[in-house]
């Protein structure tokens, strides 16, 4: 799928039907309750019961001392349910040599908070938020001018808000085997879909930013447990 202007192409994990993500953005409450279970690790992050969890996991062997993967989180919970219990959540866990338990790499750049509806939005960490919500809390089109909204996103995607393009980054040992688990879930109920978009060809062992790469190598391995 494409996600211009945030990324050219990639894959998608959703808490609802992936086809419901297709625009234009006609509704403030697009949802599909799959009725499946949640994910315990995500519940510890979001501080609430989770539903309709979707995940992918795999092993990999890095060629160098770092690993990076670009992603975008989007949700239909924006902006009506920001700072509520409907705190849909996404995590990107890594485990392996050097790590005690697992570490969540899906964090807010400014403060390392986990990625949820309540941590990146039009109020909190708004520089990492892309508004795409033309509706008010009643689901009606806002009267004010919507020229500040991205026309490509309004035309192509149903979700009412996205994060900017973010990066999951970690320090690793070359040639060793690591495990990645990427998961997303609805929180408090199975309504109002959320999704994570993983950028194609962004999973690499060599960040382009050499300063950031040096910083990652200097960091201690994560000690966080899920």
How would you characterize this protein structure?
This protein has 3 helices and 11 strands. Strands 1, 3, 7, 8, 9 and 11 form a 6-stranded antiparallel β-sheet that branches. Strands 2, 4, 5, 6 and 10 form a 5-stranded antiparallel β-sheet that branches. It is globular, with a radius of gyration of 17 Å. With 226 residues, the chain is mainly beta. The protein starts with 9 loop residues before the first strand and ends in an 8-residue tail after the last helix. Strand 4 (89-95) and strand 5 (103-104) form a beta hairpin.
Element layout with pairings:
Blueprint: E1 10-14, H1 40-46, E2 50-60, E3 66-75, E4 89-95, E5 103-104, E6 115-116, E7 129-131, H2 151-156, E8 161-163, E9 166-171, E10 178-187, E11 194-199, H3 210-218
With helices defined by DSSP (H or I, 4 residues minimum), what is the helix count? 3
- Tell me roughly what share of residues is in helical segments: under 10%
Q: N- to C-terminal separation?
A: 30 Å
Strand content: 25-35%
Report the radius of gyration as a whole number of Å.
17 Å
pLDDT average, as an integer? Answer: 81
Secondary structure category: mainly beta
Basic shape: globular
Total number of beta strands: 11
Extract low-pLDDT stretches: none
User: N-to-C SSE series?
Assistant: EHEEEEEEHEEEEH
Largest sheet: 6 strands, antiparallel
């Amino acid at each position: 799928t494409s996600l211009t202007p945030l990324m050219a192409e990639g894959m998608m994990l959703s808490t609802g039907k992936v086809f419901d993500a297709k625009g234009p953005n006609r509704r403030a409450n697009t949802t599909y309750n799959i009725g499946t279970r949640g994910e315990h690790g995500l519940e510890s992050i979001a501080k609430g019961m989770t539903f309709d969890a979707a995940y992918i996991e795999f092993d990999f062997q890095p060629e160098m001392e770092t690993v990076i993967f670009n992603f975008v989180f989007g949700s239909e919970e924006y902006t009506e349910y920001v700072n509520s219990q409907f705190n849909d959540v996404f995590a990107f866990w890594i485990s392996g040599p050097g790590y005690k338990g697992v570490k969540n790499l899906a964090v807010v750049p400014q403060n390392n908070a986990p990625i949820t509806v309540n941590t990146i939005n039009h109020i909190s960490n708004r520089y990492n938020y892309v508004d795409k919500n033309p509706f008010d809390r009643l689901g009606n089109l806002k009267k004010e001018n919507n020229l500040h909204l991205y026309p490509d996103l309004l035309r192509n995607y149903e979700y009412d808000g996205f994060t900017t393009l973010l990066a999951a980054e970690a320090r690793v040992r070359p040639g060793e085997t690591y495990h990645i688990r990427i998961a997303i879930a609805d929180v408090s109920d199975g309504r109002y879909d959320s999704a994570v978009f993983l950028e194609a060809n962004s999973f690499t062992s060599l960040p382009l930013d050499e300063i950031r790469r040096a910083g990652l190598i200097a960091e201690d391995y994560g000690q966080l447990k899920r």
